[in-house]
Design brief:
about 210 residues; alpha+beta; Glutaredoxin; five-stranded mixed β-sheet; 5 strands
Length: about 210
Amino acid sequence: MNRTRGARWLGSLWAALLAVLLLSALSGNAGQSLSGISDIDSHVAAGSKNAPIVMEVFSDYQCPACKTLFATTNRQVMDNYVSTGKVYFIHRDFPLPMHAYSQVAAQYSRAAAQIGKFDPVQQALFDNQEKWEQTGDVDGTVAAVLSSAEMTKVRALVKGGAMNTLIQKDLALGRIYNVNQTPTTVFHAKGQTFPYAGVMTYDILKNFLDQLAK
């Protein structure tokens, strides 16, 4: 397939995906309204609560697809939509039982969030995913981006068990949305709610968000 034909094919595919997403989002069969969003941990949320679009991203730190979504799509969403007040972005922990260390990673991430260090720890966990999933050294990965005083606080929070409670709330909410894989993004706009499972490119998501915002 030559480049021109390939580009046209991708363009048609994106248009089809966008049409499906919009149909799902704006149909009368979509789920809950914005008022149905519950158990929001403000430490892992970003943007304005008054934004016209809310995105809940159910993620697993040991999931390669979640790493891809974080690195290639969600960072741009944060820069171009969250920071401009168009999207309220909520991280949801959804550690899958098949991943040996994802629960621990979620505990450390949520603990870091409680002391205002969610962003650097989340990035460190995804950036070094291949390393700590082999060794299980989540603690060392997090310690590399925090001070010793900050790590003392994080370890105490993890040991205290409260982070597990927060994670369990996210898991329970995910089951309500019928989340069965990661990443799954749940969009809320115009009184409608629907989930999208898998990695979406930024170009597709940008078109989708722009249509929802109209």
